[in-house]
Specification:
The structure holds two protein chains of two kinds. Chain A has three domains: about 10-50, no CATH class; about 60-120 and about 295-385 and about 410-435, Rossmann fold, CATH 3.40.50.12640; about 125-290, Dimethylsulfoxide Reductase, domain 2 (3-Layer(aba) Sandwich), CATH 3.40.228.10. Chain A has 16 helices and 19 strands. Chain A has helices at about 45-50, 70-85, 95-110, 125-130, 140-145, 155-160, 165, 195, 210-220, 230-235, 240-250, 265-285, 300-310, 330-335, 350-355, 415-430; strands at about 10-15, 25-30, 35-40, 60-65, 65, 85-90, 115, 150, 185-190, 200-205, 255-260, 285-290, 315, 325, 345, 365-370, 380-385, 395, 400-405. By secondary structure, chain B is mainly beta. Chain B has a domain at about 125-280. Chain B has helices at about 20-25, 30-35, 225-235; strands at about 5, 15, 35-40, 45, 50-55, 60-65, 70, 80-85, 100-105, 120-125, 145-150, 165-170, 185, 205, 220-225, 250-255, 265-270. The chains are: A alpha/beta, B mainly beta. The interface between A and B is large, with 45 and 38 residues.
């Protein structure tokens, strides 16, 4: 990234990059000719994210695929949602906290389901935390204290390029003053990844052996004796290697297990819970935490907003007199797969695109940030300003720390929170709204 | 003569039938039954808008005469009487059931017998995920009663089960008996690897010939205990589709999950474990 910029370039220090779950907030965005021409301190992934920020001149609203005025779109969307018998508000993870709060109010108003979205990517970690409890920390604590990092089927060097520099292995911390020299990096993965190339200790493990491996490590740490042949057969790795890993974990002064948020299947759910159990048993002997790497979206924010608004972190049913938590029924993927909704307000337009096969017969109102063609299966589409470049708002990092993102570019389109506030207003003040 | 409800609605939206119970409709006239409110999506609507109602409930039997995959919560909180479902039905059948009997002549959706504490459920087809599981936010699954399923079940069958009997005639998915606290679970067919993870107590009988257990289960030996013969007699009386001849032979016993309490039992056919060297 060149450091010399045009004299008329405008610099925006402390900009936030939403390119990955690091949410780096030390970026200086350099704006010229209505676009971000440089992003100082950003990694290649971040540069690409900022580079995709040019202002577009596409319409701000479409109705049935035809450009329309926003007011008409709002009226149409409000009518769809008001008349729905089984509406779903989803895609909350794509917008800022301010928009999420209004989205929950809309779901309450139209008495429907509300879910973070992401088609289940975050479900297993939420359920695991509810089942087991979690020992977590901020990423800053990892930076300043962790002397052992175990990357469990994640590749942060590739997916979160600045994670090690800012929070993890390479960073100089208060209690790890020599940075990398004071830390050990253990990697367990199926392949030799970019992170594995930097590791001090690598175990290659087939993905379908994850549960057996976690149970093996937990058993060793708990002091149980295991049969070497059984362990080798079930995990494909010798008991001796697992003993070595367990010794490294127990010798750590402050250890962290990095994992991803997990899929929505049964094994991923058990795996997430087992990681938290492992952290719990390790914490009886030393200090250990688990940290999900997260992605560039605001899934954590959605979890927080749903919790403080409804009492539940996801898959909330607001059709009855009180909110109901239905994690096995009311997730976005299940509701769409089963065709159990007749209207969807998707704050993440891509979801509307992806669910085209499953949502037949269902009316869709979608918000899109990109300069997309009209979403083919949506009745009403609004183009909103892109969060982080064209619109500001609060996003939660994967460790639960709120980060204020600021707009660095002007936009013709409204911010998501402005648009759905207008939609909520339409729903509340339309004729007959009091009966809803 | 039973009270028959024939599903006449074309709607696929969720229809909550949790208030339609034999003990509740017994004291009602047909007109009052037709006016019972059920939740259809986000609205409350009269039962008659979705069902054609005929017969009376003199014998304590309520029949749902047609398939309705969108009908959920059948028999929720049921305490007495009989409900028959002819065809496939939706989720939460027999949830929080305390007594009576539910017969499903078809397949059932997820959450069959969720939080059930008594009574009997028999399914001639398959069942979805979370059979006999806990209510959201609860640690305990089924705390009593009997569930027999002739077909297969999805993931997390008998997860958190506390008491009672579940018999599965064919295969079971991942998470079988996960965090089981007590109770008895019998599976005739194949099950996904690692059944009984985190189980504290209880008995799981797996009659397939290839089983894979977690390393935290320890072989105790081969036995032919009296309780299995009693269980076989009980399964025969329930007409469960379980090959009870296997109960007459010595079965291998594994204790676990040693990471929790370790008082759980998994019984398998002799030599069914992929390796006889399981510790």
């Amino acid at each position: 990234m060149p450091q010399a910029h045009r004299l008329d370039a405008e610099q925006h220090p402390d900009s936030v990059c939403l390119g990955c779950g690091c949410l780096c907030d030390d970026i200086t965005a350099v704006v010229a000719d209505g676009r971000v021409v440089a992003a100082e301190h950003a990694c290649a992934r971040g540069e690409a994210w900022f580079a995709a920020s040019s202002e577009d001149a596409s319409p701000e609203c479409w109705i049935d695929g035809q450009p329309a005025a926003i007011d008409d779109g709002l009226d149409h969307a409000a009518a769809i949602l008001r008349n729905a018998r089984s509406p779903l508000v989803t895609g909350l993870d794509a917008v800022c906290v301010e928009a999420q709060r209004i989205a929950v109010a809309i779901a309450d108003r139209i008495r429907g389901f509300v879910d973070a979205g992401g088609l289940g990517a975050h479900e297993s970690s939420i359920h695991a935390a509810l089942e087991v409890g979690s020992v977590g920390c901020t990423l800053g604590e990892i930076r300043h204290r962790a002397d052992l990092v175990l990357a469990w089927f994640v590749d942060p060097v590739a997916t979160h390029p600045r994670f090690f520099e800012r929070y993890g292995v390479d960073a100089i911390g208060e209690f790890v003053p020599r940075g990398r020299a004071d830390r050990r990096l253990c990697v367990i993965d199926e392949h030799e990844t970019a992170t594995a190339a930097q590791s001090d200790h690598l175990l290659l493990l087939k993905r379908d052996r994850r549960l057996a491996a976690l149970w093996t490590v937990r058993a060793i740490v708990a002091g149980l004796s295991l049969d070497p042949h059984t362990v080798a057969r079930l995990t494909g790795v010798s008991l001796e290697q697992w003993n070595t890993l367990a010794r490294l974990l127990l010798d750590a002064r402050y250890g962290v297990i990095l994992h991803d948020a997990g899929a929505a299947d049964a094994e991923a759910s058990i795996e997430s819970a087992a990681i938290l159990h492992l952290v719990r048993v390790l914490s009886e002997r030393t200090r250990f935490v688990a940290a999900a790497l997260g992605s560039g979206n605001n899934a954590k924010g959605a979890e927080q907003v749903l919790l403080w608004s409804t009492g539940y972190p996801a898959a909330v049913d607001l059709r009855g007199a009180v909110p109901a938590y239905q994690p096995q029924e009311a997730t976005t993927s299940r509701l769409l797969d089963r065709g159990e909704v007749d209207a969807v307000l998707s704050l993440e337009g891509r979801l509307a695109l992806d669910s085209i096969e499953t949502s037949a017969g269902c009316s869709i109102v979608a918000l899109v940030e990109d300069d997309l063609d009209p979403v083919p299966n949506a009745q009403v589409v609004f183009r909103v300003a892109r969060l982080g470049t064209h619109a500001g708002g609060t996003v939660f990092r994967s460790d639960g720390v709120p980060i204020p993102a600021r707009a660095v570019l002007p936009s013709h389109a409204p911010a998501a929170q402005e648009l759905i506030a207008l939609l909520l207003d339409r729903l509340e003040h339309a004729p007959g709204a009091g009966d809803a | 003569m039973p009270l028959a409800l024939r599903f006449t609605s074309a709607s696929q939206l969720p229809l909550e039938l949790d208030g339609i119970l034999p003990e509740r409709v017994q004291a009602l006239s047909q007109g009052a039954i037709e006016k019972l409110l059920i939740r259809h999506g986000n609205r409350l609507e009269p039962l008659a808008e979705h069902f054609a109602i005929s017969g009376s409930i003199d014998d304590g039997t309520l029949i749902f005469e047609s398939a309705m995959p969108s009908g959920h919560g059948i028999g929720t909180g049921m305490t007495a009487g009989v409900i028959r479902v002819v065809g496939h039905a939706g989720r939460r059948i027999g949830a929080q059931m305390r007594g009576g009997r539910i017969e499903v002549e078809g397949s059932a959706g997820d959450l069959l017998g969720q939080g059930m504490s008594g009574g009997r459920i028999a399914v001639t087809g398959d069942a979805g995920d979370h059979v006999a599981g806990p209510l959201p936010g609860s640690r305990r699954g089924m705390t009593g009663g009997v569930i027999t399923i002739a077909g297969s079940v999805g993931a997390f069958a008998a997860a958190g089960m506390r008491r009672g009997l579940v018999a599965i005639g064919q295969s079971a998915g991942a998470g079988l008996g996960y965090r089981m606290i007590a109770g008895t679970l019998v599976v005739q067919g194949p099950c996904a690897p690692n059944p009984g993870l985190e189980m504290k107590r209880g008995s799981i009988v797996l009659l397939d010939r290839a089983i894979e257990l977690a390393p935290t289960f320890r072989k105790a030996g081969a036995f032919r205990p009296v309780f299995l013969r009693l269980l076989a007699r009980e399964l025969a009386s329930l007409n469960a589709t379980i090959d009870i001849r296997a109960f007459g032979m010595p079965l291998d016993l594994f204790h676990g999950d040693l990471l929790t309490l370790g008082k759980g039992e998994i019984w398998t056919r002799a030599g069914a474990l992929a390796s006889e060297t399981q510790a």
